Amino acid sequence: VFQKWVNREISNFDYLIQLNTMAGRTYNDLAQYPVFPWILRDYTSEELDLNNAAVFRDLSKPIGVVNEKNAKTVKEKYENFEDPLGMIDKFHYGTHYSNAAGVMHYLIRVEPFTTLHIQLQSGRFDCADRQFHSIPAAWQALMDNPNDVKELIPEFFYFPEFLENQNGFNLGQLQMSKEVVNDVVLPKWAHSPEDFIYKHRKALESEYVSAHLHEWIDLIFGYKQRGPAAVEALNVFYYCTYEGAVDLDALTDEKERKALEGMINNFGQTPCQL
């Protein structure tokens, strides 16, 4: 697969899907859903210029520190972390770039995810301000908040329907602006959900992304996933998210085991290292 990708016989999209599959990610498990990168950082221009490197996100950095000013906070958190019991290793992020709640967050307008979201929120929709209501706002939140580190899901590159509230769900209204949350607000350069998907997919297959995608792959699936390279890349997550970090079979206490399983399921999991 790698050779095919290098020779450009398969697309970036196909390559990412295959890497996700090899690393144990599947559409059948929300806790291990395929993970895709944010690839753009320009959600405000009238036109999207894919020949301009400045419109792309820096793929060599974890999404939590793409904004330089978050890097300091993240570093300090890591350096100052001490677990008095000595069980928990230092980490940069207490959240994860891919978890069940994040998948439901993006797909809230489409079943079965709507119902799953409502179940997660004890029988109702979460408050409107926390909903996925705008692509530019979602990017801005990542830039402002070092605790928000959600990457994307594959649907952002092929499935326009998830951006439309076709079922007419009442998702509430935003507190400040009183704006009703309905269809997802698109970047200025996208004239419809279909247009967004078309341009976003084009961006994924662009020359810039083809030349830099391996840097992001190193962080998510490769050698920068754990160990010294991960520390240096500001890419260390909570210990429970790593494969083999917890030996569930060794836990004799049924309650403790269930609690830990629940935590791993909800918290997010780092893909198997390839």
UniProtKB/TrEMBL annotation:
Which GO molecular function annotations are given, in alphabetical order?
protein kinase binding
Q: Which CDD domains match?
A: Beach
* UniProt-listed SMART domains: Beach (SM01026)
> What UniProt keywords are attached to this protein's entry?
Repeat, WD repeat
The BEACH domain covers: 1-274
> The organism sits in which domain of life?
Eukaryota
Output one GO BP term: intracellular protein localization
One Pfam family of this protein, by short name? Beach
UniProt GO cellular component terms: cytosol; membrane
Protein's name in the database = NBEL1 protein
Q: What is the lineage of its organism?
A: Eukaryota, Metazoa, Chordata, Craniata, Vertebrata
